[in-house]
Design goal:
alpha+beta; 3-stranded antiparallel sheet; 8 strands; elongated
């Protein structure tokens, strides 16, 4: 039976986000579903047109939510709720690939009539490539610990048997809703900060 040592280790590299996704859209109301939808479609067309004027390509604008729902009023006397009108929602995810233009894009969204803002998330477009440095460091950390354990047990580390990467999706880093709304209202530069890219591995070596 082979003697082995198995070690888990991780490493982190920091990267500056170079793109952002804005969750934004328009909510409109009207006395009928048709009127709410018509108003919403017109307002949303202005928003999309403004985004394209700001240099956002059509492929970077994607509808994420669309629905029309009744608006109810609930009488205090216990009677059944009554429909007072209709509300139409249309939300899109907007990818901004030039973060230097992010503040301008946010300002133009407000000017064009966007009245819904579900936040901004930042991401690193080349995250997988940049994580390679963390992967190499994680293996180095695992080997260092394996040698430490082997020496303590009176053995030496031999050939490697298995390497397994623990993969998890961290996703883009979100900006708080209040921060996003403030950025839209004031058209101030948005701080992108930095993002940690972590690699976690589990490796097994034979002992000799």
């Amino acid at each position: 039976m082979d003697r082995t040592v198995t070690v888990s280790a991780s490493a982190i590299v920091s990267a500056t986000p170079d793109q952002a996704t804005i969750q934004t859209g328009v909510t409109s109301e009207g006395p009928t579903a048709r009127e709410a939808l018509s108003k919403n479609s017109a307002d949303m067309a202005k928003v999309v047109a403004e985004l394209k004027t700001a240099g956002i390509e059509p492929k970077d604008i994607q509808t994420t939510q669309f629905n029309v729902e009744p608006v109810y009023i609930y009488p205090k006397d216990g009677q059944s709720p009554k429909i007072t009108g209709y509300r139409a929602h249309n939300m899109v995810a907007v990818m901004v690939r030039d973060l230097d233009k992010l503040g301008v894009v946010l300002d133009q969204l407000v000017s064009a009539g966007a009245n819904q803002m579900n936040g901004i998330s930042f991401d690193v477009s080349q995250a997988e490539t940049l994580k390679d440095a963390a992967r190499k460091q994680a293996i180095a950390n695992a080997l260092r610990r394996a040698k430490l354990y082997a020496e303590a047990a009176g053995a030496e580390v031999g050939e490697i048997v298995q390497i397994q990467e623990d993969v998890s999706f961290s996703g883009p880093r979100p900006m708080a809703f209040k921060q996003a709304r403030a950025a839209m209202a004031e058209s101030v530069p948005v701080e992108r900060g930095s993002q940690d890219l972590e690699a976690r591995v589990t490796a097994t070596w034979r002992l000799k």
